[in-house]
Amino acid sequence: MSLNDTVRADRIHIAFFGRRNAGKSSLVNAVTDQDMAIVSAVKGTTTDPVYKSMELLPLGPVVIIDTPGYDDEGELGALRVLRTEQVMNKTDIGILVIDMSAGIAPEDLKIYERLKAKTVPFIVVFNKCDSAAATVEEMTETLSAKTGDEGFKYISVSAVSKENIFELKELIGSVKPDVSERRLVADLISPKDVLILVMPQDEAAPKGRLILPQVQMIRDILDEHAMAFSVQTGELEAALGELRNRPKLVITDSQVFKECAKIVPEDVELTSFSILLARYKGYLDSALKGIEAIKKLTPSDRVLIAEGCTHHRQCNDIGTVKIPRWLKEKLGFEVNFDTCSGYEFPDDLSGYKAVIHCGGCMLSEREIGYRIKCAADQGVPVTNYGILIAYIQGILDRSIKIFS
User: Fold this and answer.
1) Domain CATH number, residue 230
2) Smallest Cα–Cα separation from 388: which of 266, 306, 298?
3) 11-55: per-residue pLDDT in tens?
4) Residue 397 lies in a domain
5) Contact 320, 264 (CB under 8 A)
6) How much is the average pLDDT of 339-362?
7) Dihedral of CA 319/358/84/60: which sign?
8) Beta pairing partners, 227
C-alpha cells in the first residue's frame, strides 16, 4: 500500500463467508479480477483470512476478505472458524456463498443467522450455477422457508465461467453499509484556522515517518483549507509565540498532555489525537462514561488494556508501563492489568471492572463498535487512552470543551 492509499481501517470491509469448497476463494478471485486467494479442490485450503484492498464503485475504497470455511473440523478447524467469526465483527457488507451443486446446509443457515445477529447487511450468492442441482428460484424458496425471511438480496453466479460476476459487483455496490461520515477534526474548524499539532518524536516514534493518526489529522485539516503547524513538545511555547493570533486548537499526543496544558493558554482549546479518534470511531460518549468506573476501582480489581495494533513494546510502553504507573499515582494503589492487542479481543470480559482502549486507528468503526457493545452487554465500561490520561492529569473538562 502506498502512502496515498486509504488505510484499511477506513475502507468498507466486504467479507465472503461459506462452507469449505463453496467456491469463496474462486469468487473472490473473480470479483477482484486477480489470483488473490489460493484455489484448490482440497477442503480447507483457506486457513486464515486473506485481505485485498481495491476500488469498487460506487462504494469507493474497499477491502475484500476471503475467510476459512465455516464447517472446518478438528482442533485447528475450530480456531479457523473462530477467525471467521472475528472477521464478521469488522464486516460492513457480508457475502454468504452457497454451493448450488450441494444445496443449503446447516452451516449456511448458521452464517445467515450470525450475520443477521451482528446487523451486517449481506447478499446471498448462489455459486456454481453452471452445475446446480436446483434452480435459483428453488434455492431462494428453500432458504426463505428455513430462515423465515423474504426479500433478501441474492444472485446466482459461476466463479469458473464468470457468469453474473459483473452483476454481482453491481449488486454489492448497491448495498449501503452502516458507515458514518464523521470527520476527525474538520467539522470543528473553519478555513484559514491555525492548529498546532504536538507530535513528540521520542523512542516510541517510528523511524523516518509519522504515525497514522498524525497523518490523518494533517490531511483532514488541509481538506478544510485550514493550516497545520507541527511541533515537538519542546518547541510548543516558541510556536505559540511565533503566531500572530491565537491558534484555534492545539492537538497533542496524550502522553504529553500535562506538559502542553501548562504551556497552552486557557483561552486556547486543547485536546488529543486519541480523544479525537474516539469521537471519529463513534465511542467518545462511552469512553467518557467509562471514567466513572475508573474512579471506583479497588486494589483487587482487574482492568483490560486493549490495543488495536501489534507493535514491539519498549521499556516505557504507554499501555503496559505508563498508564499502569499513572493510574497507580492517581488512585494511590495498584490494580491488576491484562493486555490484548491486534485483532484479538476476549469474548468473556466478565472478570474485568473496566476496559481501557487505545484510539483504535487501525480498527474499523464497526470493529470498535463491536468491542464497545460486547463490553456493554457484559456490564463492563470502556474508556480510552486520551480520556483516561486527561482525567488522571486533571484536564478532562478542558480536553473535551471543543466538542460542546
Assistant:
1) 3.40.50.11420
2) 306
3) 889 999 999 888 899 899 999 887 655 555 555 555 578 888 888
4) no
5) no
6) 89
7) negative
8) 194
45 Cα distance to chain centroid = 27
Render pLDDT for 190-244 as a digit per residue (tens, 0 to 9): 999 999 999 998 666 667 778 888 999 999 999 999 999 999 999 999 999 999 8
Decide if 1 is inside a domain. no
Burial 206-245 (b: 16+ CB within 10 A, else e): eeeebebbbebbbebbeebebbbbbbebeebeebbeeeee
Domain boundary among 133, 151, 174: 174
The helix/strand/coil state of 229 is strand
d(Cα 322, Cα 319) in Å, to the nearest integer? 6
> Which of 396, 400, 366 minimizes the C-alpha distance to 294?
396
Name the residue type at position 159. A
Check: CB of residue 335 under 8 Å from CB of residue 250.
Answer: no
- Residue range(s) defining the domain that contains residue 196: 186-277
Joined grid coordinates for residue 140: 431462494
157 with 302, same domain: the answer is no
50-65 exposure pattern, b = at least 16 Cβ within 10 A, e = fewer: bebeeebeebeebbbb
CB 254 within 8 A of CB 390: yes
pLDDT at 4: 47
- The whole-angstrom separation of Cα 145 and Cα 137 is 12
Grid cell digits, residue 13: 470491509
